[in-house]
Amino acid sequence: MTTTLPPVAVPAPRVDPARWPDVARVPNVPLRAAVAARLLRRVALRRGLSVELPDGRTLRPAPPGAPVLRLHRPRAFFHRVGESGLIGFGESYQAGDWDSPDLVALLTELATAPETLVPTGAQWLRRLYVQRPPDEELSTVANARRNIHRHYDLSNDLFALFLDPTMTYSSAIFPTGPGRAPVATRDGLPSAQHRKIDRLLDLARVGPGTRLLEIGTGWGELALRAAARGAHVVSLTLSEEQLALARRRIADAGQEQQAEIRLCDYRAAEGQYDAVVSVEMIEAVGRPFWPEYFATLDRVLAPGGRVALQAITMPHDRMLASSRTYTWILKYIFPGGLIPSVRAIEETAARHTGLRLTRADAYGLHYAETLRLWRERFTERSRQVEALGFDEVFRRMWELYLAYSEAGFRTGYLDVHQILLARDDVMA
Fold first, then answer.
1. Domain end residue (candidates: 62, 94, 129)
2. Which of 8, 267, 328, 338 lies at a CB distance of 3.0 to 4.6 Å from 90, suitable for a disulfide?
3. Which pairs from 236-239 meet CB under 8 Å and 24+ separation?
4. pLDDT tens digits, one per residue of 110-140
5. Is this structure's pTM higher than 0.85?
6. Among 86, 108, 129, residue at a domain's last position
């Protein structure tokens, strides 16, 4: 049974095949496309989604307020999804084959218990489209700088369009209201970012005279706040864009004697430090290199020192299930990485170092709100993004990335933790 809505013609974005070869190419896989169409009908039925077709029909009646998947080019959509699953789903959005009036609501529904989207008896279908991450994106010393360059060296001006003035690209921690729900506003985002940084520095007991190593500089806000406490900071980055701006900000603040930014892989870190902090950098390390990452933390940490990490996490079983899967996020947003579980962090540190996890505080809904504010600003400033030279395919890619991430934190599929690691002889 179908219902009819007024048809809407939506022009497809212009896709540069040299820049976006797999978005420009529409595969021809009729049998797989038919399977994808059947799966979409099942998902729509089980999740209460409204799937709208270009002629105004809907696949099935849906309750009022149901999340909407609006198909503009169904054939391209089903053939892309049929060929490469969720990678095709993302590339189809980049190409403008589908849309949604509330992208976060749709993705939140799809991110809820995602393992149930494909029937148990049809899990073998994953073999048709699941790919392994390519070797050239493995975060070796040779590849890591290239992986970082693809995301963080896009343009400092691009990030400045949607981040707050602190230029902090990680979860904030907002004040909380009834039920401990975060109370997030744009005006409150800078102070919420400072609250996050200060809690992490407090966790590591950073104060006057502390020798602090930061792994992953960002644009320098944590180094600035640590230097203002009187710490002596060495901060490592592989992003040349971030290096230049962070150094300029530190010079402008008159903190060059307290904070030094180095273009350096974490594996080449030297010296001994009373504290090590790292904010949402472990996600880029890659599972094969976790032992070396934690061994580096252990090697540079002075006796009595503490390590404070902020890490995006996922449930351990989901991490294991996705650990060797090439995803749309890996292909287009963060090559070479893997989001760990808290258990994986604890076990890897215990197995390869003298460090022990002594505390882990979760702030997942705070990240959802942080992402909402970023996404709203990014969408509102699409013309300014275009003026920087980023085409519509890129803008749609980032809208999907920000909305997908927000949905992940809203459902609990993703979380973010501030984690304390210390040796056995250090009191938590």
1. 129
2. 328
3. 236/261, 236/262, 236/264, 236/265, 236/266, 236/269, 237/261, 237/262, 237/263, 237/264, 238/144, 238/145, 238/148, 238/149, 238/152, 238/263, 238/264, 238/265, 239/148, 239/149, 239/152, 239/153
4. 988 666 666 554 555 556 667 888 899 999 9
5. yes
6. 129
